[in-house]
């Protein structure tokens, strides 16, 4: 099959024409009867199902290789090496980020990660010099141009492959053995879970343990103190109900823990383990459900929320985890040895690199950049260090970007980072508090100021459409009126409260 398809590929290169996707003979086609009369879908909207015996990974031919006309040559070498191309798409990335962190634990089978190490071996080390020295036949050794442009990308493991597939091929599915036997499939999706203040305060650990036990991955997490206005906005359709004053009191009595949960059939499964909305009914009919287990004495409001549909889940996730921008800096001490690894981990964590600039800061620019530390005793050392060599400025975009990047960096002191966040960048790559490898904005306002200082005025597509520049639906001063044409959060909210 590979030889036959390779011959076809050579004809494409020599004579032109359309390239067809190489498909496995065992590839199952997913047909939805309800969509038979729908308009013909584009290629990237077609549902792709892979048998349980097949493994998969994401391969990306990067812009530098495409710009130098090497894409077709690389594709031929991929096929010649025995890899099957199950789906392909050419696209220009915008500020969209990989919004899902999927883990296919329920569908994983023996051999599911086999193609990942094979592909990474084929493309070679991320460091260009290392690739040329140790793997001269690898794709990166042959086709990279200059750091950090190393021609191709490969998922590091099966979990990362799943997350990246969710971004580039959202309709890509893996059929488990059981699904192949009964013909049923479930898509990996996200849902919003809210742990209301009483349960968040008293039973947070137990609830999170139940979430993980049920096969969910916590893709995003945020603890937030809601105002009355924000609660009214989120539960808009419940405002006139008799129980709303009790709901309002409950939701504003302390911090709410918001979670974006991911797994196959997340919406349906989360609601099934929540149980009935009425607390008394939950205790009587489903005593093992989460709402019964974590009910608060003398409280009529249940302690856990779940989205009713995938569409509602995405709206609610956008409410609590709006897309944000933040500024990240790879400092001079990390540029030579760790830059490539840090950039790979940034992409693997779902950030979109919207802007990138490698520069040597002048003393004047460094002093202005760190002006808030001007009166600190370490200010002079910090400025001198930042001017010592090149650093890389990155504009990152992601849901909850500011907090996510700060969590990824870890504590400022690398010794503390090693104790509390051993997998963080600073724990692994920093030397001391001054030479701590990376920098990140402390909050949204700080991020906006630093982005403006480094990259100038940048208007996102979302800001252009909304006309206001506010990205955070929760903390915007005028969230209900910022985009009158968009659906109001809460119009289809979960009617999960005792009426």
UniProtKB/TrEMBL annotation:
Residue stretches of biased makeup (Polar residues): 477-486
GO-annotated cellular components: cytoplasm; lamellipodium; nucleus; ruffle
Cell compartment(s), UniProt: Cell projection, Lamellipodium; Cell projection, Ruffle; Cytoplasm; Nucleus
Key words of the record: Cell cycle, Cytoplasm, Metal-binding, Nucleus
PROSITE patterns xrefs: NDPK_LIKE
UniProt: ATP binding residues: 331, 378, 406, 412, 426, 436
Start-end of Acidic residues biased regions: 32-46
Catalytic residues of the enzyme: 153, 305, 439
Xref: InterPro entries: NDK-like_dom, NDK-like_dom_sf, Nucleoside_diP_kinase
Region entry Disordered, spans: 23-48, 465-499
Domain (Nucleoside diphosphate kinase-like): residue spans on this chain: 54-176, 188-322, 323-462
BP GO terms, sorted: CTP biosynthetic process; GTP biosynthetic process; UTP biosynthetic process
GO molecular function terms noted in the UniProt entry: ATP binding; metal ion binding; nucleoside diphosphate kinase activity
PANTHER family according to UniProt: NUCLEOSIDE DIPHOSPHATE KINASE (PTHR46161), NUCLEOSIDE DIPHOSPHATE KINASE HOMOLOG 5 (PTHR46161:SF1)
Family named by the database record: Belongs to the NDK family.
Biological role: Major role in the synthesis of nucleoside triphosphates other than ATP.
Protein name per Swiss-Prot or TrEMBL: Nucleoside diphosphate kinase B
């Amino acid at each position: 099959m590979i030889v036959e398809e390779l011959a076809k590929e050579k004809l494409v290169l020599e004579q032109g024409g359309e390239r067809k996707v190489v498909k496995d003979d065992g590839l199952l086609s997913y047909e939805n009867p309800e969509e038979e009369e729908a308009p013909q879908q584009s290629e990237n909207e077609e549902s792709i199902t892979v048998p349980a015996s097949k493994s998969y990974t994401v391969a990306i031919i990067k812009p530098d290789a495409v710009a130098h006309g090497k894409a077709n040559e690389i594709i031929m070498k991929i096929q010649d090496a025995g890899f099957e191309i199950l789906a392909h798409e050419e696209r220009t990335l915008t500020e969209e980020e990989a919004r899902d962190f999927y883990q296919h634990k329920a569908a994983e089978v023996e051999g599911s990660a086999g193609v990942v190490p094979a592909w990474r071996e084929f493309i070679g080390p991320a460091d260009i010099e290392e690739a040329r020295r140790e793997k001269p036949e690898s794709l990166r050794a042959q086709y990279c141009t200059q750091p950090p442009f190393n021609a191709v990308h490969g998922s590091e493991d099966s979990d990362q492959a799943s997350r990246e597939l969710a971004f580039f091929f959202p309709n890509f599915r893996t059929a488990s053995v059981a699904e192949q036997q009964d013909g049923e499939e479930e898509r990996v999706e996200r849902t919003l879970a809210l742990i209301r203040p009483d349960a968040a305060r008293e039973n947070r650990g137990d609830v999170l343990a139940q979430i993980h036990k049920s096969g969910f991955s916590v893709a995003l997490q945020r603890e937030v103190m809601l105002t009355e206005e924000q609660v009214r906005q989120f539960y808009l359709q419940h405002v006139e109900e008799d129980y709303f004053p009790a709901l309002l009191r409950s939701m504003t009595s302390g911090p709410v823990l918001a979670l974006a949960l991911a797994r196959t059939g997340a919406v349906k499964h989360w609601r099934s383990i929540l149980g009935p909305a009425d607390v008394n009914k939950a205790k009587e009919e489903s005593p093992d459900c989460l709402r019964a287990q974590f009910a608060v004495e003398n409280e009529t409001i249940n302690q856990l929320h779940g989205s009713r549909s995938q569409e509602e889940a995405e709206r609610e996730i956008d409410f609590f985890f709006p897309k944000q921008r933040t500024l990240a800096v790879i400092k001079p001490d990390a540029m030579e040895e760790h830059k490539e690894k840090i950039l790979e981990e940034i992409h693997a964590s779902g950030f979109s690199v919207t802007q990138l600039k490698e520069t040597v800061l002048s003393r004047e620019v460094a002093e202005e950049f760190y002006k808030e530390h001007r009166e600190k005793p370490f200010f002079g050392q910090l400025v001198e260090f930042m001017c010592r060599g090149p650093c890389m400025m990155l504009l990152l975009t992601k849901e909850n970007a500011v907090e996510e990047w700060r969590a990824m960096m870890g504590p400022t002191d690398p010794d503390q980072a090693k104790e509390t966040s051993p997998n963080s960048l600073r724990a692994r790559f920093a030397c001391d508090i001054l030479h701590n490898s990376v920098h990140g904005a402390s909050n949204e306002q700080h991020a906006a100021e630093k982005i403006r200082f480094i990259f100038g005025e940048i208007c996102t597509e979302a800001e252009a459409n909304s006309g206001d520049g506010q990205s955070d639906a929760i903390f915007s001063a005028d969230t209900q009126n910022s985009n009158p044409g968009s659906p109001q959060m809460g119009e289809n909210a979960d009617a999960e409260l005792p009426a």
